[in-house]
Each structure stands twice: as structure tokens, then as C-alpha cells.
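Protein modeling request. Please complete all fields; requests missing the sequence field cannot be processed.
Requester role: graduate student
Desired output: 3D structure, C-alpha cell encoding
Chains: 1
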Amino acid sequence: MAPRALVVGGTGPTGPHLVNGLRARGYVTSILHRGTHELEDGMLADVEHVHADPYDGAALAGALAGRRFDVVVATYGRLREVARACVGRTERFVGVGGVPLYRGWMRPEDLVPRGLPVPVREDAQQVESESELRKGFLIRRTEDVVFEHHPRSAMFRYPIVYGPRQPLPLEWCIVRRVLDGRRTVVLADGGLTLATMGFVENLAHAVLLAVDHPDAAAGQSFNCGDEQTLTLRQRAESIAAILGQPLEVVGVPAEVALPAWPLLTHEASDHRVMGLGKLQRALGYRDLVPVQEALRRTVDWLLANRPDPGGFTERLLGDPFDYAAEDQLIAVAREAVERMRAVRYASPPTGGASYIAVADRASARADGSGETSQ
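Delivered output (374 residues):
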């Protein structure tokens, strides 16, 4: 008899890739969701859909009564309730959580010195109490509850997800500006922020590795995301290049770079880089889709599924696309740069005197006019 799998969720950005990955591995796969969002074009129409509210413990218990699965992958709903409802119904539980459980992820000022370590490993400091940061603590506590119910489960900590069907498409902030004819974009602190992101197929691949390597994954939590982390500037310039239109980046201090806040998903430009070493070593993870190709697929999706101007998606992003205000900010930023360039120094900084000195010594040795190495 073929093994059976249940995906709780299945209609979100990574869901179809998880379902199809399980099916490719020989699992007869069902998905459980509320039924309010079905996939377009009949995708996964030949998969059993179990309709129940994954936030409701009683509804879950009723929907799963009398059923057993070889593996359950939970990507949606109240994970504590899902884990509890699956006790005795599966030997292998794989859950998807998030990264705000790390202290400093939501509030970098909570760490001294300010900011997260780069990269953030799975054993980094975590939020200790609800009074410290409620959301982060609840995510941490949820992981604990999952392991209490399923000691051999595996947990995956998702970063920001991008790709087709992402309901919060950050890339649209750049795509729409290019489509609207903008040739400049405001980025906080020059767009030098590094933030781990995960393309939908890459994240699904990471989760499925727990199915492939159950013993190595048992009882473990894993960071996951793309192996290559681009700066926000690199992402913006890459998207503009895909669209065939160069884009000039104007850097503005993060605290006043309001047009850039939606891209940051924050009001600060601190780095948020996840260490993937554990995932790579224990489960053999490598990106299925390189970042540049992932961005191209994301842009193609957005071009084919453009959010309505001023509609729900843009309101969710929090980006007003107020170009008049942006132009004022750009003008002030450029004026400030020119004023700073006018500052005169009694002894101008060299920006790397030690390296210049080394180069000068090497040049002197080459022509025989200077000192020799000791």
C-alpha cells in the first residue's frame, strides 16, 4: 500500500510544491484547508481536499477522525492545535514556523551591541517572555509544544517568502515603479541591508528534505532560505534589469526613508541573515532555483497577476506609491549630499592608508628604488 501524506495548508505559496514533491516521492497526498481559497487553473484538483478550520482544534479532530498518515506537513493554521490533533495519527510530523522567535529579529535594539549576529544560527538567543515580545515568544512556545507532542518532529523557520502566489509580494514595490516609468528608487541607507529570503520552490525543497532524511531531521529545528542573500539594492537592480530598465538608487537614512519601509518590512535597515549551515550539513540542502532565476519567475508572475492600483495587496504592502513625495525626498537627499561634499578637511582622509602604503612598497620593490621585504 502506498504511503499517505497530509499537507495542512497546501494552497499557499509553497503548498503546491510540497504536495507535488510528496506525490513524486510516492505518497498519496491530501491537503487540509478551510476551502476559502482554491488554487487557480484547477491546480491540485486531483488531490483530496479536506475542508476544516486548522485554527479550530475541535474541527481538526473531527476532520481527522479515524485517519492516519505516514507524514504530516503543517504549513498553516494554529500549529499547536494541528500538532495536538495529529497525535496518534502520524509517526512523522513536519512543521513550518517563523524567525521572530530570535531576540532582535523584530527589534534589533534589544541586543547589545545593536543588531543580530550575522549569520543568525539556530542556537542564537531567543525571546524569553511574552512581556519582552509577544509575537516572538508565542512562536518560540509553539515550537516547544510541537516537540512536546511529537518529539521526533522537524521544524522549519521560514524567512520572508517570495515567488508566485505570495500574498505580500515585496517585489511589486519595484516592479510597479518601473512599469510606471520611474527611473529612481529610494532605498534606506543605500539599500545595503542584507535580509534572508526564500523562494517558494527552495523552501519547499528544504522541508521535503526532512521527509527524505527522517532520522537526521528528527527533533531538530532548521533555518531555511535561499543560500545567496542579495542586498536590497541588488534585488532592486536585478528586478529592474529583468524588466529591461536601469534604475538609479538614491540612498536616504532609514529613519526618514519612508518609501523604502515596505521593502524593509521594518523601519530600520539592520541585517537579518539566517545561517543555513545546519540545514546544509544535516540534510544536504542546496538551492533548487538560483536567486536570479527565482527573481525572474517572480517578476513574470507579477506581470501576469498585477495587483490592482490602490487595492488590497498594495494596502497590505503599505506602499502608497506617492511619487510626488518621493521626488521631494530625492531632491532633499541630493542637495544634502552636495552640501556634505563641500565640507573641506585640513588633512583629507585616505580611506585605507595601510593598503595604499603596502601597494607603494610593492611598487618600490618592483622598480628597485625602495625597501626590500624583511
